[in-house]
Design a protein that fits this description.
Layout lengths: L1 E2 L11 H18 L2 E4 L2 E3 L5 H24 L3
Antiparallel strand pairs: 1-3, 2-3
Length: 75
């Protein structure tokens, strides 16, 4: 799998917004196990054990968030 960042809605970003978005995206890529390929393009080898472990961790975090939200909104 490969990804390349871009504007989802076509709007222009200020330099500060671009830096902030790049920093956030970098943290997401790291948490998902994407590796840099070239000039902003990152790849994810879905068959690597590390990738599978990271995906399982993220799924666990997501499940915990869902359970917490359900508990908070039951009343």
């Amino acid at each position: 799998m490969a990804c390349e960042p871009g504007s989802a809605d076509g709007r222009e970003l200020t330099e500060a917004q671009h830096r902030e978005a790049a920093a956030k995206l970098s943290r997401v890529r790291e948490r998902l196990g994407l590796e840099p390929l070239q000039q902003g393009v990152h790849i994810l080898d879905r068959h690597m054990r590390r990738t599978q472990d990271l995906l399982a961790e993220r799924q666990g975090e997501f499940s915990a968030l869902c359970r917490a939200w359900q508990e908070e909104h039951r009343s």
